[in-house]
Design a protein that fits this description.
This protein is of the alpha+beta class. The chain is built from four helices and 15 strands.
């Protein structure tokens, strides 16, 4: 069942999104060669505490960290670690924030120092794919229109879209209906309605779209060892179009 949110609930989620977005903006200042994702995770924990918020995924099905930190060929759900990031790496920091009972979810990929042209292209295409998906998130469209727009654009740029991990509704809990694939056919899936709140979070690979799981049971990697990136926003559907609840850009 897809739960439609009231204006009051959306406003509360927007406040959670503002805390999350401000945390990402601070992370962007920290990312450089030599820092560890462990240190970033500790920073996020402290930042959220100072802002009277909590990391929702900590403790979720036994996950131990405030963030997921995925480096290079890790697609998602990487564990923070104490090995320093290196010049040329890319890293995705993903987190879900609870603030005054409301949730918001956003992932962002960051370059570490100077990165290759191939990695620059990966980051640019993945970020653009997110916004192409958001353009389709309007009342009357279908969920499949989002995935189709993303897949068509990504593949036109010579990259591939991960199938095994998708966007999702969010509300009282982290994962709700609808499922939001980042691939597929237009005109398919649930009709998009006012009051829906869900994530769009394309994971894009330089090589093949298939994934493989690490022995930790959480972390997914690309099957061919080529790099992957992800950008994610939480958005609310209104009659005037989608509102990005985790927007980082200054208005």
């Amino acid at each position: 069942m897809i739960v439609l949110k009231s204006k009051r609930e959306i406003e509360a989620m927007k406040k959670a999104g503002e805390v999350l977005a401000s945390c990402h903006k601070e992370i962007a200042k920290l990312i450089k060669p030599g820092i560890t994702t462990w240190e970033i995770d500790q920073f996020v924990e402290e930042f959220l505490k100072k802002h009277n918020a909590t990391p929702e995924q900590k403790g979720y099905q036994g996950f131990e960290y405030a963030t997921c930190a995925s480096i290079n060929d890790e697609i998602c759900h990487g564990f923070p670690r104490k090995e320093p990031l290196k010049e040329g790496d890319i890293v995705t920091i993903d987190m879900v924030v609870r603030y005054n009972g409301a949730l918001a979810d956003s992932a962002w990929s960051y370059p570490v120092g100077t990165i290759s042209e191939e990695n620059k292209h990966l980051l640019a295409v993945t970020k653009e794919a997110l916004y192409k998906g958001i353009e389709q998130a309007v009342v009357g469209n279908r969920i499949g229109d989002i995935g189709h727009a993303i897949q068509q654009y990504v593949e036109s740029e010579g990259l591939s879209v991960v199938r095994d991990f998708i966007g999702h509704g969010i509300g009282a809990v982290m994962h709700e209906k609808p499922d939001v694939p980042h691939y597929g056919l237009p005109g398919k899936g649930p009709r998009i309605k006012e009051g829906m709140v869900f994530t769009i979070e394309p994971m894009v690979n330089i090589g093949r779209y298939q994934t493989k799981m690490e022995g930790n049971g959480w972390t997914a990697r690309t099957i061919d060892g080529k790099n992957s990136a992800q950008y994610e926003h939480t958005l609310a559907i209104t009659s005037d179009g989608p509102i990005i609840l985790t927007e980082q850009e200054e208005e």
